[in-house]
């Protein structure tokens, strides 16, 4: 059910790779809620061609950009403002990639060139996007900027590898930029989402176990990509005008639960 929460708002959505992507669901919901936006992804991800289906469905223009390239981001903002006919009201950063994770490197045997790439793609890109948006005066007063994070920023998770450091930096960038953009009434937040079966998620070793464990521990169960999109829409809407510089857990209560009855029973029944 749509509520016209984003009627007349303009935005840029990063990171829709395929229909499982969290950004894909956000784009669908933003369209339903009356927003217009451009879609962007790394040129290499475009080759799969799936994003064009989403663009057609949402009436969006697709503009390729490697989120680590300042030149690509400059071009993206110039073209987005042209396509949308004005400044933007919301931005979604839904980008993550670690070459160390992808190539199966152990945390005790990291390739540091790749570590820097992980940080550049998964965290610094968020800073670059906001720096360029600010320099180009591309954001309307009251705009809302959201990036997606994961609890490994606060608590150690085996296998999450150097992405944990990237997420910690991402959350810190949200606070620092939220402070900076506050005078323009612009909000910057991160949403810390439950483990979700997407291309990025499945790249983490033992991911299916995380999903199962989190599902059992969370009082409300895991949050789906679609539920995450619903939450992000509220953050883009005018209903959350005073929420900024937060890392907002969208995880069914996982982050606040130490142990559940289900785990206690499972543990004692084995004794
Ligand atoms: P996904 O694989 O669908 O999306 C990741 C996106 O990052 C892809 O569209 C990919 O093309 C894009 N990307 C990678 N390198 C890029 C670059 N250099 N420039 C521009 N885009 C680039 O997976 P998902 O799960 O939708 O990931 C979205 C965000 O959600 C990521 O930040 C991820 O870390 C975060 N997240 C995911 C969780 C999960 O369990 N799937 C849990 C918590 C957070």
Automatic annotation (TrEMBL):
<feature type="binding site">
    <location>
        <position position="95"/>
    </location>
    <ligand>
        <name>NAD(+)</name>
    </ligand>
</feature>
<feature type="binding site">
    <location>
        <position position="167"/>
    </location>
    <ligand>
        <name>NAD(+)</name>
    </ligand>
</feature>
<feature type="active site" description="Proton acceptor">
    <location>
        <position position="160"/>
    </location>
</feature>
<dbReference type="InterPro" id="IPR002347">
    <property type="entry name" value="SDR_fam"/>
</dbReference>
<comment type="similarity">
    <text>Belongs to the short-chain dehydrogenases/reductases (SDR) family. FabI subfamily.</text>
</comment>
<comment type="pathway">
    <text>Lipid metabolism; fatty acid biosynthesis.</text>
</comment>
<dbReference type="GO" id="GO:0006633">
    <property type="term" value="P:fatty acid biosynthetic process"/>
</dbReference>
<dbReference type="GO" id="GO:0004318">
    <property type="term" value="F:enoyl-[acyl-carrier-protein] reductase (NADH) activity"/>
</dbReference>
<keyword id="KW-0443">Lipid metabolism</keyword>
<keyword id="KW-0276">Fatty acid metabolism</keyword>
<keyword id="KW-0520">NAD</keyword>
<keyword id="KW-0560">Oxidoreductase</keyword>
<feature type="binding site">
    <location>
        <position position="15"/>
    </location>
    <ligand>
        <name>NAD(+)</name>
    </ligand>
</feature>
<dbReference type="InterPro" id="IPR014358">
    <property type="entry name" value="Enoyl-ACP_Rdtase_NADH"/>
</dbReference>
<feature type="binding site">
    <location>
        <begin position="21"/>
        <end position="22"/>
    </location>
    <ligand>
        <name>NAD(+)</name>
    </ligand>
</feature>
<keyword id="KW-0444">Lipid biosynthesis</keyword>
<dbReference type="Pfam" id="PF13561">
    <property type="entry name" value="adh_short_C2"/>
</dbReference>
<dbReference type="InterPro" id="IPR036291">
    <property type="entry name" value="NAD(P)-bd_dom_sf"/>
</dbReference>
<feature type="active site" description="Proton acceptor">
    <location>
        <position position="150"/>
    </location>
</feature>
<protein>
    <recommendedName>
        <fullName>Enoyl-[acyl-carrier-protein] reductase [NADH]</fullName>
        <ecNumber>1.3.1.9</ecNumber>
    </recommendedName>
</protein>
<keyword id="KW-0275">Fatty acid biosynthesis</keyword>
């Amino acid at each position: 059910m749509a509520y016209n929460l984003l009627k007349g708002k303009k935005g840029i959505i990063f990171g829709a790779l395929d229909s499982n992507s969290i950004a894909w669901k956000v784009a669908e919901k933003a369209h339903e809620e009356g927003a217009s936006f451009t879609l962007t992804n790394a040129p290499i991800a475009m080759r799969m061609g799936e994003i064009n289906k989403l663009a057609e469905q949402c009436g969006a223009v697709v503009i390729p950009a490697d989120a680590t390239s300042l030149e690509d981001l400059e071009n993206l903002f110039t073209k987005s403002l042209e396509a949308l006919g004005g400044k933007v009201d919301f931005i979604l950063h839904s980008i993550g990639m670690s070459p160390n994770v992808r190539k199966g490197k152990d945390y005790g045997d990291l390739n540091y060139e790749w570590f820097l790439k992980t940080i550049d793609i998964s965290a610094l890109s968020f800073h670059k996007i906001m720096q360029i948006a600010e320099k180009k005066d591309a954001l309307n007063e009251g705009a809302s900027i959201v990036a997606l994070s994961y609890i490994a920023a606060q608590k150690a998770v085996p296998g999450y590898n150097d992405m944990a450091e990237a997420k910690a930096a991402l959350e810190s960038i949200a606070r620092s930029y939220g402070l900076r953009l506050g005078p323009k009434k612009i909000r910057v937040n991160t949403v810390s989402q439950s483990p979700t079966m997407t291309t990025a998620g499945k790249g983490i070793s033992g991911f299916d176990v995380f999903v199962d464990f989190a599902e059992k521990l969370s009082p409300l169960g895991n949050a789906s990509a679609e539920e995450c999109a619903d939450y992000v829409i509220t953050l883009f809407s005018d209903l959350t005008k005073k929420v900024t510089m937060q890392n907002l857990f969208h995880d069914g209560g996982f982050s606040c639960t130490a142990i559940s009855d289900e785990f206690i029973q499972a543990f004692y029944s084995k004794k």
